[in-house]
From TrEMBL, chain A:
InterPro entries recorded: PIG-T
Coiled-coil segments: 526-553
Protein name: DEKNAAC101640
Superkingdom of the source species: Eukaryota
Ranges annotated as spanning the membrane: 491-514
Cellular component terms per the entry's GO annotation: GPI-anchor transamidase complex
GO terms for biological process, alphabetical: attachment of GPI anchor to protein
Biological classification of the source: Eukaryota, Fungi, Dikarya, Ascomycota, Saccharomycotina
Membrane is among the record's keywords: yes
UniProtKB/TrEMBL annotation, chain B:
Coiled-coil regions, chain positions: none
Major location category of this protein: endoplasmic reticulum
Domain of life assignment: Eukaryota
Name this polypeptide is given: DEKNAAC104356
Length: 555, 480
């Protein structure tokens, strides 16, 4: 399920402060952020869940508007120097963090990279206008960020309808984020028609994968309960009576509407828009049926409906055989990344790439690792179709990996940034593997639950067109959870206590040596005779004897 | 071992536990603060235009009267100085008073005052021959100057009102045009917003730098209808009794400002065309939200078209202008916005100076009272710079240039900003919350056993010495 929104805004690139900035349908908050930070392009992705490419096929819109798990941000900033750009970038992340209720402000220099081959700006506006300064591309990601309702609400508020009309009226946090996979994207581009008229174009999209039988089940029974006996469908070829039943597999009949999926219906079209709100169904019409529940008249073209009144609309889909669906388009590449190794101090990455197509593919593997992952590029090995393994020193490797762009990490300052330009032959599986060492962190650098591990952001796999150098398809692997050696956090205090104890022991013996005098045994005995303790024990002994004596007396 | 601990251990311990404290110029701060109020002695020149030679005595007479009036007022205030001037020589932005004698033939023989609402800041005083003959002219001018023109005794109250938005040298005016429905209104706002912006910069340009931003909002439904009562007399009209819950800040997208500079929010709300909303007891159908902004409800009185013309918007912007003055804490009188802005700028300048000195005084007190907080060099730099600006601003005031308050205000605002920065320095506060118990917990394992050993040793020593004395006494007595 995919929701797409687009709005435009006319703005000067170099605003005259004497002129009032005016925002109509374009969100003012985004506009002022862009003006303050000189960002010419802004891309924000929120993602949740794992995309099962085997079951769900190709990503929508070739994956160009989907994000990996967590939050990802990249922007093209116009600035005088790299440092200036970085200052603007921090300002941008801080402002967006407030706006989207996400911890984007944690993107600092140790997570920021400047990609070289992918995420490149759409430079078409550059041909129309002469910029005053240079453009800098910066990117950062937070794989650990949970995406939830508090991110959806600002997303909806940026729309002119504020989620009150049009298809956005379906979206509520409760129903959006219980899907199998979800991805939200905000893209702001600068488009110039002539040197004097430029405008921002904002594109917001939200993609969901929903398990419909699961959603319907949950609607029927929020708490799973066994099916009552009279509703049970038993396999009649087998033994069945009041006590025995071999249940049949679930029925393939499905009948559901938007109300079932989202708990709401569409509250009319977004009448503000130039083109009416359009709802399209992409179904196999032989076995599926689409019906519309609305009091308003509908204009339709094929399976698309234009909503141009402010009445409520509900769409229903029904089928007798839910297995008959439109054939899925297979993705042009399958990729996965996993961690290898088991020790506390080192490990490895393994990236599997499978090209199922009959063409050779130019694939860019983009990865950034935090500085505490100390990558060894010389350990890069490649195995093709699980048969032979080549080292990085082998000549053969050049036929697969054409070029490597690598910026090594600087401790606590910048992450390592790796771009592998590979050529994956048709119908071939390529396995890349790399080793790394784990660095020890400073005591204060560990997050509150250090034993949970550290998320490594998804690798971005892009298929590049060999001629136009444009990205044809883009996908992201899952995040990797890396465990680092974690210290015992009470350690500093233990150290303090132990040293203190040793020191006081030493001090005690020195003190005794200095202050105590040596006496002969007799003298000591004599002193001991007089001591209070001795006197008390003596008295006690006397008392004991007296009691014993009185006990013996009656006999 | 003692040597090692004294030569190696002690210095290491000292350097690793000591904190950097830059020396603040406390005495200078105190000195400046003590002299501040005496030094701020500002003068507002007023020109009496085209005064004939014969009336030179009037000038002096009026000056003495004004001075005696002015000394009655407490606190920092303007010293008014009257000058003679010719209308073609005096700066067009200065205060000017023109005396006009009403001829005996005019019908209206009442003396009156007319204060120009334009940039020329001209006051015309119409005098009847009767007043002149009774020699009350100087008295009359004094009353006009202290009472109406500079509102000396009244501007203190409004300046500290609860409505007022805290001062900032930069300020954003955020205009929002919101409508309840989805039927887009064609707002013809470009020309009027431009005009409004021009007006702000010409009137309030010296007070602060204003930028204007506007946005549209659709589908801004009302948050609660409980406070809306149907009007008995008029069909379809709702009366808003309580304005406190009318605005839905988060849903109307009014809370999305991500900038640091404060903003004044001005909102036009247009309800659906099938209803009208009237605010109870409000003629202009508007209200002010203290320290936030103002809102005007504009009803589409049975209009069929969705066009909102400049003509229709003009009264709304008039309300906005007056709301801005209220929100900035401008005095109620005189009617001229230019003179009101001048009064505001002057008192703001003084307030900035006083506030920045307050900040510096508090800072020096704070560092005195909390010996554990570090004072970084940057704080010292900011303190020095802030004091320099305060001094500079005062010297501008003393310089008595024409319209000095513009420059003095800018300098004082900078001084305030820097002193704020110095006071709220992040590095300083960080360790304030490092409690002494923690230090105790670190030193306890070391000092505990040491202390116990020494304490027991001392006890033993005391006991031994007393018993020794006792045995000595005993032996002595035995000997005797």
């Amino acid at each position: 399920m995919s929701f797409n929104f687009e709005t435009n805004h006319t703005a000067d690139l170099y605003p005259n402060t004497q002129e009032a900035a005016h925002y109509d349908v374009f969100p003012k908050a985004i506009g002022s952020i862009l003006q303050n930070t000189n960002a010419r392009e802004l891309h924000l992705r929120f993602g949740q869940g794992w995309y099962d490419a085997d079951a769900w096929g190709k990503l929508l819109r070739n994956g160009l508007e989907n994000g990996g798990t967590g939050v990802e941000l990249w922007a093209v900033i116009e600035a005088e120097s790299k440092d200036d750009a970085f200052v603007k970038w921090s300002q941008l992340t801080n402002s967006l963090s407030g706006l989207f209720c996400a911890s984007l402000n944690f993107i600092d220099s140790s997570t920021t990279t400047s990609p070289v081959t992918i995420f490149q700006p759409d430079g078409s506006f550059l041909q129309k206008i002469q910029l005053k300064n240079d453009l800098y591309l910066l990117r950062g990601a937070l794989p650990r960020e949970p995406v939830c309702t508090e991110n959806l609400t600002p997303f909806l508020k940026m729309l002119p309808t504020k989620g009150k009309a049009g298809i956005s009226s379906l979206l509520t946090g409760r129903k959006v984020f219980n899907s199998e996979w979800s991805s939200m994207a905000v893209d702001v581009l600068t488009v110039c028609d002539s040197p004097n008229s430029c405008h921002y174009e904002i594109k917001q999209s939200l993609d969901l994968i929903k398990n419909i039988p699961h959603v319907l089940d949950k609607n029927r029974m929020p708490i799973p309960k066994p099916i009552p006996g009279d509703e049970m469908r038993c396999d009649e070829t087998k033994k069945h009576d009041a006590y025995h039943c071999f249940p049949l597999p679930e029925s393939n009949k499905l009948d559901f509407g938007l109300m079932d999926l989202f708990g709401r219906v569409i509250h009319g079209g977004a009448l503000l828009a130039d083109s009416p709100t359009r709802v399209c169904a992409d179904i196999d019409t032989d076995s599926w049926e689409l019906s519309v529940n609305s009091t308003a008249a509908l204009t339709s073209s094929g399976l698309c409906y234009d909503l141009n009144t402010n009445q409520d609309y509900d769409f229903r889909l029904s089928t007798n055989d839910s297995t008959k669906i439109k054939p899925l388009e297979a993705p042009p590449i399958y990729a996965s990344r996993s961690l290898s190794g088991y020790s506390q101090d080192s490990g490895g990455f393994r990236i599997d790439l499978l090209n199922p197509t009959n063409d050779d593919l130019n694939v860019v593997v983009f990865e950034t690792f935090p500085w505490f992952v100390r990558l060894y590029l010389h350990t890069l090995t490649i195995s093709v179709n699980d048969t032979t393994t080549y080292d990085v020193s082998d000549r053969v490797i050049n036929s697969v990996v054409n070029e490597i762009i690598y910026n090594p990490a600087v401790d606590r300052k910048s992450p390592s940034h790796l771009e592998l330009m590979t050529l994956i032959p048709a119908n071939t599986k390529v396995k890349l593997s790399l080793d790394f060492d784990k660095a020890m962190l400073l005591y204060a650098e560990y997050p509150p639950d250090a034993n949970h591990g550290f998320e490594i952001e998804p690798a971005v796999i892009s298929i590049i067109d060999p001629i136009t150098k444009e990205i044809n398809y883009q996908m992201r692997t899952t995040t990797a959870l890396l465990t680092l050696p974690t210290p015992d956090f009470s350690m500093p205090y233990n150290v303090i206590i132990i040293t203190s104890t040793v020191m006081s022991l030493a001090f005690g013996s020195f003190f005794n040596l200095l202050t105590k005098k040596t006496v002969t045994e007799e003298e000591a005995e004599a002193v001991a005779e007089q001591s209070r303790l001795r006197r008390i024990t003596k008295k006690l002994q006397e008392l004991k004897q007296r009691i014993r004596g009185s006990k013996e007396a009656p006999q | 071992m003692v040597l090692i601990s004294a030569l190696v251990g002690l210095p290491i311990w000292y350097f690793s536990t000591s904190i950097h404290r830059a020396r603040l110029p406390e005495e200078q701060i105190d000195q400046l603060n003590d002299n501040l109020l005496d030094r701020i002695n500002y003068e507002v020149p007023i020109y009496l235009l085209d005064l004939p030679e014969a009336l030179d005595g009037l000038l002096e007479e009026t000056q003495t009267l004004i001075d005696s009036e002015v000394t009655k007022i407490e606190g920092i205030h303007a010293h008014i100085k009257l000058y003679k001037g010719r209308s073609d020589q005096v700066d067009k932005h200065s205060y000017k008073i023109k005396l006009i004698t009403l001829g005996p033939e005019s019908d209206d023989l009442e003396e009156s005052v007319y204060i120009s609402p334009k940039e020329d800041r001209l006051t015309k005083i119409f005098l009847s021959p009767e007043v002149i003959s009774n020699g009350l002219v100087s008295d009359f001018i004094t009353r006009v100057v202290t009472g109406d023109l500079l509102a000396l005794n009244r501007n203190q109250g409004s300046h500290n009102s609860l409505l007022r938005i805290p001062y900032s040298p930069k300020c954003k005016v955020s205009l929002s045009f919101l409508e309840e429905g989805d039927d887009p209104i064609e707002w013809d706002i470009k020309p009027i917003v431009k005009k409004f912006e021009k007006y702000l910069s010409s009137v309030l340009g010296e007070y602060a730098n204003f930028t204007v931003e506007s946005q549209m909002g659709y589908y801004e439904s009302l948050l609660d209808t409980a406070n809306l009562e149907a009007d008995q007399e008029e069909e379809g009209t709702l009366i808003l009794k309580d304005t406190s819950t009318f605005i839905d800040y988060s849903e109307w997208g009014l809370d999305q400002d991500v900038e640091v500079i404060p903003s004044i929010n001005l909102v036009v709300y247009v309800p659906n065309s099938d209803k009208k909303i009237r605010i109870e007891n409000s003629v202009s159908n508007s209200f002010i939200v203290p320290q936030w902004g103002g809102i005007v409800i504009h009803n589409q009185e049975g209009k069929n078209d969705t066009l909102m013309s400049t003509k229709e918007l003009a009264p709304i912007f008039d309300i906005f202008a007056s709301q801005i003055f209220h929100l900035l804490g401008a005095p109620e009188t005189p009617k001229s916005p230019f003179i009101r802005a001048d009064i505001m700028t002057r008192s703001q300048c003084v307030e900035n100076l006083v506030k920045s000195m307050d900040n510096l005084i508090s800072l020096s007190k704070l560092t005195e009272q909390l010996p554990t907080i570090p004072i970084p060099e940057i704080t010292l730099k900011e303190v020095d710079e802030s004091m320099r600006l305060v001094n500079e601003s005062i010297s501008v005031i003393e310089g008595k240039e024409e319209r000095w308050w513009k420059k003095a205000n800018q300098l004082s605002a900078k001084a305030l900003e820097l002193s704020d920065k110095a006071f709220f320095q992040k590095d300083m506060v960080q360790q304030v919350y490092f409690p002494d118990e923690h230090k105790m917990a670190i030193y306890m394992p070391l000092l505990g056993p040491f202390g116990t050993i020494i304490l027991l040793g001392v006890l033993r020593m005391v006991r031994e010495s007393t018993s020794n004395r006792a045995t000595k006494l005993r032996t002595k007595s035995e000997v005797n």
